[in-house]
Write a structure and sequence with these properties.
4-stranded parallel beta sheet, globular, Dna Ligase, domain 1, alpha+beta, D-amino Acid Aminotransferase, Chain A, domain 1, 3 domains, 6-stranded antiparallel beta sheet, 333 residues, Rossmann fold
């Protein structure tokens, strides 16, 4: 039987389109579906009785959900009510009903889930759980504090001589006063920020000591294969504190030879989180220490692949089709 793969993601996901094309080249059928199209532009149905029948009808494809060999929870959006429903309370009710049905349906399919079932993905995304597990596995961690007490925050600030950063605890998108969403990245805490420390009492913040960097590393684990890449963020002033600010064309990348014990630790972290894929951010310090920052079960990889030639997309195809990843140019741990 040929592979039948459903990729749940947003419409403009170039990473998913890249993998879908490679899957098609291998003879697999891959259907990309944005759950935000349900119920206004797609139909999902389930029937139970003597025979179970679960189907998805998009604008372009009919999918028998019971014949799927894999579901990839890439970057799905929640269902969105039909535009004709304008009353906010009614829209909210409709979207809750749609989300409940769709979520239950995805969870009951007897196929392979990549990177994991949804509940495992949600657990793996929790920043404090990541840090606790990484520490138990032997990763070095930055000194980290999560608090909503201004006094505790100021003590941490003084203990590190002001050399600390703050970053989102959960959602990297914040809201401005005009309601427009903006992304919030890792930021150094300035003396001006300290002057507003009292506002911390309203919600917890995560602060960490600033860790000096020789290079930053994006370590992509696919199955048990490890692809490590250097991001020379310190060569670009815009990217010194968070490489996601960088100008891709102006930032040097290279394949990194990760020590075997660090590579094995990265694989163990992914496995212990119940995942088959994870994008891990590490710092390599000037004195050659590897410091763990975080892991993203849906992290991007295509820019790394394009910059270094690491065959990450091909490994993801292997994972979706066979449950394993080819070694390629990665490090098998």
């Amino acid at each position: 039987m040929s592979a039948e793969i459903l990729i749940l993601t947003c419409d403009d996901d170039t990473h998913a389109h890249q993998v879908a094309g490679l899957l098609a080249d291998r003879g697999a059928r891959a259907v990309l579906f944005d759950p935000a199209d349900y119920p206004s532009r797609a139909r999902i149905e389930a029937a139970y009785g003597r025979r179970v029948r679960r189907t998805l009808q998009t604008g372009e494809a009919h999918v028998d959900l019971d014949t799927l060999t894999a579901v990839w929870f890439r970057r799905p959006r929640p269902p969105a009510a039909h535009p004709e429903i304008i009353e906010p309370a009614v829209r909210a009710c409709v979207e809750r009903e749609c989300a409940a049905f769709a979520a239950d349906l995805w969870d009951q399919l007897g196929c392979r889930y990549v990177p994991a079932p949804r509940e495992s993905i949600r657990r793996a995304q929790r920043k404090t759980s990541q840090l606790a597990l990484a520490g138990r596995l032997g990763f070095e961690l930055p000194d980290t504090l999560i608090t909503h007490d201004p006094g505790t925050f100021l003590d941490f600030y003084n203990r590190h001589s002001g050399q600390i950063i703050t970053k989102p605890l959960n959602d990297p998108k914040a809201l401005r006063a005009d309601g427009e969403a903006v992304s919030r990245m890792s930021e150094p805490v300035s003396t001006r920020d300290v002057g507003h420390a009292d506002a911390i009492r309203f919600a917890p913040v995560i602060v960490q000591e600033y860790v000096a960097k020789r290079v930053e590393l994006r370590v992509t684990v696919v199955g048990r294969t490890v692809f490590a890449a250097e991001i020379h963020s310190q060569e670009n002033n815009h990217a010194r504190h968070d490489w996601r600010r960088y100008d891709l064309a102006a930032t040097r990348h290279a394949v990194h030879d990760l020590p075997p014990d660090v590579a094995a630790r990265c694989v163990e972290l992914v496995v212990r989180l119940g995942l088959t894929y994870g994008a891990i951010d590490l710092i390599l310090t000037p004195d050659d220490r590897y410091v763990f920052l975080e892991i993203n079960p849906s992290g991007q990889w295509l820019w790394i692949e394009n910059a270094t030639g690491l065959p990450i997309s091909a490994a993801i195809c292997d994972l979706l089709m066979h449950g394993t990843s080819g070694e390629g140019r990665g490090h098998a741990a």
